[in-house]
Amino acid sequence: MVGDSAAMEHLSDSQIATLRELLTGEREALLKRGAQLVAEETRVQLDTGDLQDVAASEAARALELRLARHELARLREIEEALARIEDGSYGICEDTDEEIPFARLRHQPTARFTVAALELREREAGGRARLVAPEDDPY
Description:
- This protein is mainly α.
- The longest helix has 37 residues, at 51-87.
- The protein has a single domain (5-132), classed as DksA, coiled-coil domain (Four Helix Bundle (Hemerythrin (Met), subunit A), Up-down Bundle).
- The chain is built from 4 helices and no strands.
């Protein structure tokens, strides 16, 4: 990992400010959503409704938990991206040390890899999956 601020030379101060704003805006939205979920959870009280109501409530709760896990993972990605901005390694591919273009970062501010590096990772992962899959699987 690159550790000096010169590593982000391909990004202007204005571009870094724009990306930081995107990241902090999404972080604030996720934190607000989390606070809302906590507040809703404290207000929710299951009545002695019928089993269908209880089942629907449990299904909704399970969905909320899955979403919360996803949002927590996204929050971690955002925090890591903000830390990379601070340590000067933001916008540098973790596999190739190549610059990640601003257009990609603007679209995906938490990007850690160039498109080419990501495609290579996916091809390699697909190749490994094919190696362990049975060749004559009838299903």
